[in-house]
UniProtKB/TrEMBL annotation:
One of the record's GO cellular component terms: endoplasmic reticulum membrane
Ranges where the Glycosyltransferase subfamily 4-like N-terminal domain occurs: 91-247
Record keyword Ion transport present: no
Keyword Transmembrane belongs to the record: yes
Lineage: Eukaryota, Viridiplantae, Streptophyta, Embryophyta, Tracheophyta
Pathway in which this enzyme or protein is active: Protein modification; protein glycosylation
Family matches, as InterPro entries: ALG1-like, Glyco_trans_4-like_N
Localization in the cell: Endoplasmic reticulum membrane
Biased composition (Pro residues): 25-37
Biased composition annotated in UniProt, kind: Low complexity: 38-51
A GO molecular function held by the record: mannosyltransferase activity
Protein name per Swiss-Prot or TrEMBL: Glycosyltransferase subfamily 4-like N-terminal domain-containing protein
Length: 292
């Protein structure tokens, strides 16, 4: 005789009649529940890409913000960019990398600030080629400076959140910084001190082809910036009306190391001026005696 038998270790729908007293054929029945295993943590249940993304976000949140100040010139002769660096380090709490040419030393407060790091580039001198062809010397100098800027901004400094570049000079600074800001995912801000093409026109004339190319270059890459500063309202109006650039007027304020002279310092300056005037009078009398 046969009687229905339901295997308690199998689902209801998979039960079949088995003869009494016979051992069922096939693989042994599975237990009703899988063996207990330690519960997995929620983080281990996330996909690996999500874990990597959350880790990167946590590292990004804990990373101190960073700015790169770019000056294709002597940083010691650019007080405005020195003020920017001090403000970013002391007031905004950012790490600041200054990429500039060597020359005169910047102020002591920059050199002693642990949040400010100065990276000096070598100045490019092509005096021999300039005697043969001035235009060729300008092109070669711009190409060499472009390569140097790319090297320093991409490989010599950590990735910044923002690039602040001084203009002028425009060639090749604006193009190099724009390219690097796109490659490294940073903002690109131009601080307009003057118009580079007008300064070049003083020596070559406004109608020279080099001045016209320089004007197009400066305007084209200047409009590609994510933000802009300028020094006067007149320049702000010029940039907005004729260049299509919205700039914020940022006036220069004296830093903390500028202060009224003390009484001792005034006395020393007065003595130096007095000796200098006496020296000029002595030179004048000596020349007059020689003529007579």
């Amino acid at each position: 005789t046969f009687q229905p038998f339901l295997d308690p270790n199998r689902e209801q729908s998979s039960s079949v009649p088995i003869a009494a007293g016979r051992r069922p054929s096939g693989p042994p029945p599975r237990p009703p529940f899988p063996p207990s295993t330690p519960s997995a943590s929620p983080s281990s249940l996330r996909p690996s890409s999500a874990r990597k993304g959350s880790t990167a976000m946590a590292e990004e949140a804990g990373r101190r913000r960073r700015a790169a100040v770019v000056v294709l010139g002597d940083i010691g002769r650019s007080p405005r960019m020195q003020y920017h660096s001090l403000s970013l380090a002391n007031q905004a709490g950012m790490e600041v990398d200054i990429v500039a040419n060597g020359g005169s030393d910047p102020h002591l407060s920059l050199r002693e600030n642990p949040s400010i790091h100065i990276h000096e580039m070598k100045s490019v001198q092509l005096s021999g080629i300039s005697k043969i062809s001035g235009a060729l010397a300008l092109l070669l100098k711009a190409a060499i400076q472009f390569i140097m800027l790319i090297w320093f901004l991409c490989f010599k400094i950590p990735r910044p959140d923002v690039f602040i570049v001084q203009n002028p000079p425009s060639v090749p600074t604006l193009a190099a910084v724009k390219l690097v800001s796109w490659l490294r995912g940073a903002k690109f801000i131009v601080d307009w001190h003057n118009f580079g093409y007008t300064l070049l026109g003083l020596s070559h004339g406004r109608s020279h082809v080099i001045v016209k190319v320089y004007f197009w270059f400066e305007k084209h890459f200047g409009r590609m910036a994510d933000g802009a500063f300028c020094v006067t309202k007149a320049m702000q109006h010029e940039l907005a009306q004729n260049w299509g650039i919205k700039a914020t007027v940022l006036y220069d304020h004296s830093p903390e190391f500028f202060r009224p002279a003390s009484l001792t310092e005034k006395h020393e300056v007065s003595i130096c001026c007095l000796f200098f005037l006496r020296y000029l009078r002595y030179c004048k009398n000596s020349i007059c005696s020689l003529n007579t």
